[in-house]
Design a protein that fits this description.
By secondary structure, this protein is α+β, with helices and mostly antiparallel strands. It contains seven helices and nine strands.
Length: 180
């Protein structure tokens, strides 16, 4: 196994070996094809290539959609964590099997998050999560310009609402769109 951060000379050796192996395979394709273990050779090489591709082309992780809002027995909320591929329109809860529209789930989450008391960095992370990115520096600038008002305090530090940042973002976004 190759260490995460090999020394430069080790990197050069690994690169040189890899090149040598590739050249040897290219020069000996016909010989390999005639050998009775050609199928094994192919499978071994294919396995290595597939492993390399999985490491390089990591799958896009599912997005977290919050707790399942479905009401189940005894008027209790299911609450099971909902996750779905980023391009999905619906998600089925693994616990209660209820099918949810992702846009509706996202709107419900926004209604809960809108008035959470958060730092500018936390708001930046929430906005990124919801696919409506606002740089933390922009949030701090809006704060200093007085466009973002303090909504509460925690640990002696001011906190803001993500909903206010979202409104400012959408207003600024609309201005850019109409100015074009």
């Amino acid at each position: 196994m190759v260490p995460n951060n090999p020394q430069p000379e080790r990197k050069a050796l690994i690169t040189e070996c890899t090149i040598d192996i590739a050249l040897w395979l290219a020069d000996n394709t016909a010989t390999i094809a005639r050998d009775e273990t050609a199928g094994d050779c192919y499978r071994d090489i294919k396995t290595i290539i597939d492993t390399i591709e999985r490491v390089i082309n990591r799958p896009i992780p599912d997005r977290f959609l919050g707790p399942c809002p479905a009401t189940i027995e005894n008027e209790h909320r299911c609450g099971h964590a909902l996750t779905a591929p980023r391009d999905a329109n619906e998600v089925t809860c693994r616990a209660c099997k209820t099918v949810h529209n992702i846009d509706e789930i996202t709107q419900r989450l926004w209604s809960e998050v809108n008035e959470w008391l958060l730092t500018p960095q936390e708001i930046h992370m929430v906005m990124e999560y919801f696919g409506e990115p606002v740089p933390a520096s922009t949030i701090r600038r809006w704060k200093h310009e007085g466009r973002l008002q303090v909504r509460g305090w925690r640990d002696g530090k001011p906190r803001y609402w993500a909903g206010d940042v979202r409104s400012l973002r959408n207003t600024g976004h609309l201005k850019r769109m109409t100015a074009v």
